[in-house]
Amino acid sequence: KGTGKTLVAAAIARHFAQHPESKTYVSYVPCTTLAGESTKLRRVRESLEQAFQNTNQNGPGLVVLDDVHLLVPPSSDEDPSGGRRSGMIAELIVRLVQDYVTRSRDQEEDSMPRVCLLMTSLNKSLHPLMQSLSIVSHSVE
Which residues fall within 8 angstroms of residue 2, CB to CB, at 6 or more apart? Predict the structure, then answer.
């Protein structure tokens, strides 16, 4: 927390938005707005699916899930229902990212690859399903 992840993610998204010649569509999802038990699971699913769908429809692009750890914390003994919710969201994100990256691999070689940035504070603070997402990952401390 407090390392500037959101600033970096927002700057990347803003850069592409200000340079339409790059032909890079950006979907920026501030997961803080979707986190919390009061947010309906259906709304979370719809927001995430919409972000990936918009980027898929508008060509090569970037999906940024900022503070994704808030949506997919590891389950705890104190809150087993929260663990089920976190697991369902983690499964959805893994599926969406894998589908998104697969579409990139199926495109022509000279087109820009599709990128998904999952901005989070600590890898170990994620649901275990998210930790298994091993398409490409890089951690900056």
Answer: none
